[in-house]
Amino acid sequence: MPARTFRWLRAHKVRTAFIVLLFLVAAELATIPWFDIARLRTDNPALTALMRQRAEEARGAGRAYRVTQHWVPLDRIPRYVVDAVIVAEDGTFFANGGVDWFEVRESIAKDIRERRAVRGASTITQQVAKNLFLSTSKDPVRKLKELIITGLLAHELSKERILEIYLNIIEWGPGVYGIEAAAETYFGKPASALSLDEGARLAAVIPSPLRHRPDGEGRYVSRRTGIVLGRMEARNMLPRAEGDTAAVPAAAAAADSAAADSAAGLDEDTSEIDGGGANGL
Fold first, then answer.
1. Do 118 and 18 sit in the same domain of this protein?
2. For residue 53, is it within any domain?
3. What is the Cα–Cα distance from 114 to 231, expressed in whole angstroms?
4. Which of 29, 98, 167, 241 could form a disulfide with 125, with the two C-beta atoms 3.0–4.6 Å apart?
5. Rounded mean pLDDT of 244-270?
6. Same domain, 75 and 162
7. Which residues are 68's β-sheet partners?
8. Domain count, the chain
9. What pLDDT does residue 250 have?
C-alpha cells in the first residue's frame, strides 16, 4: 500500500502539492484561538505573542528582556490622544469591519511595483490580531490567519474594547508596551496627563517603535507628528483647550469623510518602517 501511494503521489505532483497545501492551511487554522477571542470581552490579555517573540529574540542574542506595561482603561486616555492614534493608524476605524480592503488593494499594488513590502495596510483591529496571537512574519499563511482572527475580533468585541486593547498592548519601544508605559517612559507622566503634542508624537512612531522615540527631535518624528496634527485639524479633532481630556470620541464624531481621508496621508512614510516591527504593517 505505501508503495502504491508513493507511485500515485509521484504521478500526480500538482494534486499532491495541492493536498499538502490544504493540509498545511488546515493545520494553521486549527491553531486559531477561537475561545480566547470571546474571553477578551471582559478579560485583559496577559503576555502577547509579540512580547513572547521579543523575549525569545533577546534570549537568542544573550540579552535580558523586561516587559513594561501598565493597563489603563480607555476612559482615562485623553480624547485627543485616542484621535491622534486613530488618524495615524486607521482613519476608517469606526466605519470598517476590521479590514480596510481599499488599503489592502493599494498596498498589494504598491508592493508589486516596488517588489518589496513598502506600504502598510493593517487596520487597528488587524494589529490587535497580530500582536496578541501571531508574529511579525509576513508569510501568506500568517496573513490568512490574521484576516480570520481580525474578523472574529470585529464580531466579538465593540470598537471601544478593540481600541482599549490596542492602546494597552502595542509596542512603543524596546520592552515598552501600551500607552501608559510609553507615557511614563518618554514623558514622565501617566497617559491621562499627556498633552496634544505628546499624544501626536506617540501616534507618529507607532509604525516604527524600535527605530524612533516619540521624545526625539529627528526629521522622521517631527514630520509625522505634523502630519498627524494636520489630519486631526482636517477632521475637526483638535481640542478647544489642551486640558480637554474627554474619553474616546463617539463613532459619529470620529467617522471619516472622503475629503479627510485624502488629507495629509501617512502612507508615504512606510518605506522607513522597521521591518521587524509589529505595528502598522
1. no
2. yes
3. 27
4. 98
5. 41
6. yes
7. 176
8. 2
9. 35
63-107 confidence digits (pLDDT tens): 999 999 999 999 999 999 999 999 999 999 999 988 877 776 776
- Residue 230: all three cell numbers together: 494636520
* pLDDT tops 50 at residue 269: no
Span 11-34, mean pLDDT? 68
154-210 confidence digits (pLDDT tens): 999 999 999 999 999 999 999 999 999 999 999 999 999 999 999 999 999 999 999
The answer to the question of residue 95 being in a domain is yes
- Do 212 and 238 fall into the same domain? yes
Q: What confidence tier does 132 reach under pLDDT thresholds 50, 70, 90?
A: very high
Q: Which domain holds residue 122?
A: 31-272
Residue 177, strand partner residues? 171
Q: DSSP labels for the chain?
A: -HHHHHHHHHH-HHHHHHHHHHHHHHHHHTT--HHHHHHTTTPPP-S-HHHHHHHHHHHHTT-----B-----GGGS-HHHHHHHHHHH-TTTTTSSS--HHHHHHHHHHHHHHTS-------HHHHHHHHHH--S---HHHHHHHHHHHHHHHHHS-HHHHHHHHHHHSB-STTBBSHHHHHHHHHSS-GGG--HHHHHHHHHTTT-TTT--TT--SHHHHHHHHHHHHHHHHTT-S-SSTT----SPPHHHHPPPHHHHHTT--GGGGGGS-TT--S--
